[in-house]
Amino acid sequence: MSNEVIVNETLSLLRNHRSVRQFTDTQVTDEQLNTIISTAQRASTSSNVQAYSVIAITEPELKGKLAALAGNQAYVEQCSVFLVWCADLHRLKQVTAPHLGDKPSYEDSMENFIVATIDVALAAQNAAIAAESLGLGIVYIGGIRNHIAEVSELLGLPELVYPVFGMCVGYPDQENDLKPRLPIEAVLHKNGYNKEQSIEQVKSYDVTTKQYMIERTEGKKDTPWSQVMANRLALPHRLHMKEFLESKGFMKK
């Protein structure tokens, strides 16, 4: 399989994505924010349901509370604007009710939960690239799900809305090396899933990631990717999510 790739300006932007966790004091303008979100809205959406909402947090005190709930991640408080990306079926339920009459509604089905979660993820990635094209940096924050009920209450999220992740946006105050990704042969399968190929490629990736960690930490860490993943899977992680989502009206059908 050839590893040759095409290069152009758009592809270079996409291929040079880095997570940014240090930001300058320069603020994101309303024009920039509107551009980012309107670009996010052009992402693909299942059946045009557009089942997501975005809450832009700029108030320092509120950012501080969210930073604490997200695991005391200082960059949530430091960034210019913190975006909370929410899967949103509440709006759909409310605006369709007058048209349905006595007909049953399935907004709380597992399928619609999946649709909403995918919709918000696609929109957020559009936003990330839009922000980077404007010279801004971003980092996704899954930590808002650490205390998801408290985050939801703090932001006044109604039934059938849940915060999927946050996103710090601001002007970068750091330079990062590109973190190596899995070899393309590990993720690209042709005409069927190749189990042996996928697993075999991790061996070379472990060598690459071990060397990357040695260089990045000046020899303090040398843990390969598969060991990092094993450590992650060995810990119970946000096991409250199922109960919370059901309490918010998701996945009843």
TrEMBL record:
Keyword Oxidoreductase: yes
Residue ranges of every copy of the Nitroreductase domain listed in the record: 14-171
Signal peptide as annotated in the record: none
UniProtKB keywords: Flavoprotein, FMN, NADP, Oxidoreductase
Keyword hit for Lipoprotein: no
Family: Belongs to the flavin oxidoreductase frp family.
Name this polypeptide is given: FMN reductase (NADPH)
Organism: Paenibacillus macquariensis
Lineage: Bacteria, Bacillati, Bacillota, Bacilli, Bacillales
